[in-house]
Amino acid sequence: MSTIQFQEKLHGFGQWRDELIRATERYNKWMESLGVSSESTQETIRVVKEMLLNERLVVAFVGEFSRGKTELINALFFSDTGLRLLPSLPGRTTMCPSEIFHDSSQGSYIRLLPIETRLSDLTLGEYRQRTAAWLHIDLDYNFPLQMQEAFQELAAVKKVSLAEAAKLGLYNHEVPGGAASVPKTVEIPCWRHALISFPHTLLKEGLAILDTPGLNALGTEPELTLRMLPSAQAIIFLLAADTGVTNSDMDMWNHHVRGSCNAGRNRLAVAMNKIDTLWDDELQQEDALEKSISSQIKDISNTLGVEESLIFPVSAKKALLAKVRRDDILLEKSRLKGIEDYLSNAVICNRQNLLREAVVSSMGTLVNESVSHLENEIRDAEQQLQEMRQIDVSNHDMTRHLMEETKKYQTNYKAVVDAFQSCHTMFAQQFRHLADAISSSTIDPIVRKARKEMLSSLTTVGMKMSMKSVLDSLRSTIDTALVRADEAENLIQVIYSRFEDEYGFADLKPSPFSLTGYQIELERLFEEGEEFRRSAFTTLMEQNAAVQRLYGTIIAEARDLIARAYQETNAWGSSALTPLARRIKDRRLLIESRLGVLRKVTHSNETLDEEIAELEKRLALLHRKYGEIKEIQQCVSGVACEN
Questions:
Q1: N or C: which end of the chain has fewer CB within 10 A?
Q2: Which CATH architecture has domain 429-602?
Q3: pTM here?
Q4: How far apart are CA 521 and CA 527, in angstroms?
């Protein structure tokens, strides 16, 4: 079946990632073997390796109730169990957002977060660190029936009073579709969120799945819209062929889905599910069926503003049945292959290119610098070897001239060191202003003040005013940091240019640095938060608790974003002058080596021959190390993936 293609592509992606991980380890050992490792480079390598080790291909499925999200997940990924593994029958569908992955350290389990935790100030991210708050159910992967039965808990509901449901943000009689008369109790999900781990082949290869149960969940859990969906590598938005694009579909699309597609960082496609409902008309000819599907695709494209090539008609129900029964004819008719090909090619390839860009921009810069540094060291050694071979020990005028020339280099070197120390002091002062602008000591008081004001506010209007104040403060903070980052980056450019012009340090390029990306991401977060608040569902459900949860999420996400900016700023600041410092050190070692050789060989050809032999041995080592670093460079830079 065509799932094999997706598995093979995912496996290939995993092998490529593992090769990069090995490259980080090789590079670390390479630097240690030459004695050129530093704390800043080791930290960069550690961060890159950790990013690669934790890499998962996250595919999110989003849509209203009864659009067939979970059935599509079953058909795409878990048909090999021979069961409808996740609950997707009418009346037994997933009621809480679920994350499905493989946790190699903790094994197979379901962890369920009680719905009552919505009353807490803690975010879902914070609850992840508190395992005691979750109901833990062990899974036995060797018995799919046991897993299927355990997964029924995802569909669990309970009846509560209207007051309790409203307090949880899960009931408002004005919401469209509500009952004409006010009931005494309402049915709500038992669980707020689910974490599911088991060692399925695709999950072990790095696939992770986010299954969302409809507008009710997206409209009341801002973290789904503001953090989880934007961080997914692919978002599949589901519609039903028998309903078309409904008002609730549009509300979800406009306020929760469309904005989550983050400037090419993830992929967004539409699945038009339940095309099997169009098969029921036995009088309809095949060509008429094709025209009907094509017409719906065109309408969806115009309504949502999505390219027709990214809209996939499918019958998840028939696809799952076909895979379990090994019915190739029915599988082809279900059209599942379109989505499988999209995931296998476009999504995996896009993710590989983005991950490659991230590695190249961090560790790749270090590797390129190491290549340049070693080329310069080899060039200096070869020049020194050539000079040594031309030395005539009996020609005292020559040796004296070389000694005097080398001492001039030594005097020049002292001027270089003085200039570097002056520039380093100047940059350190400039950098301190930059780091202080986005440090926790600057950000935390803003966050504490905002949370305190929101907690003490009795109205949503008061909370909105507090939120506007904190957003303005955070904007001002990042804007200030942006200006100081540009100033610091410009200073580094000036320093490197000076050392090239005045002291001959050519071929040295400082790493570029900018916080613009964080400023853009912060604005996107604020805009998405406002879109979330303006959605029809959220407006109708709006209460103090709901608005507080939304604004609390925005503040937490903004704080994390600025914390990442601070970490990147520190990493850049600690390494900005490293290439220059290393080149200066190389010049000192070269001068010391030349002086040492000249002192030794003044009266002995035999000593000169020994020094030449030692340098030739050193050059052989450098050439061998150069071959190793070029292999690492090729692995890190690689070739862009083409789908």
A1: C
A2: Up-down Bundle (1.20)
A3: 0.84
A4: 10
